[in-house]
Structures are given as structure tokens and as C-alpha cells.
Amino acid sequence: MGKQMTEMLKGTLEGIVLAILAGQPAYGYEITARLRDQGFTDIAEGTIYALLVRIEQRGLVDVEKVPSEKGPPRKVYSLNPQGSGYLDEFWKTWSFLAERIEQLHTGHPKEQGEK
């Protein structure tokens, strides 16, 4: 992954992880694996764990400790109502930015009200 991709991901990775958790609860390694399945192959587990700590501290997820077959219990993260609201806002912002970037790319601004 190039430097530009890394920089762009810094601003969106939180929303991407919350979107994964909106699908179903998961623990850190599962989240990393799902990201890799989506083509984000260079994201380090440590990056995801640090992000999970931040979103937990901000109250966007609920955490349940679940016994593990190997080693200590796993922390399973699930999106809570506050996190859902944050994710909704993320998607609105993403749509706004994606439209404007596409307009810049194609040189064709949308007319007011056009879909």
C-alpha cells in the first residue's frame, strides 16, 4: 500500500471498522481478517487494536469478554446505538465527499437536485 493510501485510510479506518461491526460483532483479529479479505492487506493488527481502544473509550462500541479456546478471553466488540449514530454520520460525510471528488475527477458537477 502506498503512502497516499495509508494517509487516506487514517481518516476513514474508524468508519470502516464500525461498518464491519454493524454487520456483526467481532474481536480484533476477526476485524483485521475481514479487512484483509476486502483488500486492505497491509493493515497491521496493532493499528486495529489501537483503533478499537479509541472507539471503546469514546463509547461507540460495547465490549464483551468471551472465553477463548486458546489463551485469555477475547474482547468481542459490537456496535451500540451511539456507534450506529456515528456510523450514519460517517456515511453521510463519505457520500458528500465521494460526490464532490467524482465531480472534480470527471469535471461534471451535478445540477441541483440531480441524482
UniProtKB/TrEMBL annotation:
Listed Gene3D superfamilies: Winged helix-like DNA-binding domain superfamily/Winged helix DNA-binding domain
Native organism taxonomy: Bacteria, Bacillati, Actinomycetota, Actinomycetes, Micrococcales
This protein's name: Transcriptional regulator, PadR family
SUPFAM superfamilies according to UniProt: Winged helix' DNA-binding domain
Top-rank taxon: Bacteria
Sequence ranges assigned to domain Transcription regulator PadR N-terminal in this UniProt record: 17-88
Stretches of the chain forming a coiled coil according to its record: none
Alphabetized Pfam families for the sequence: PadR
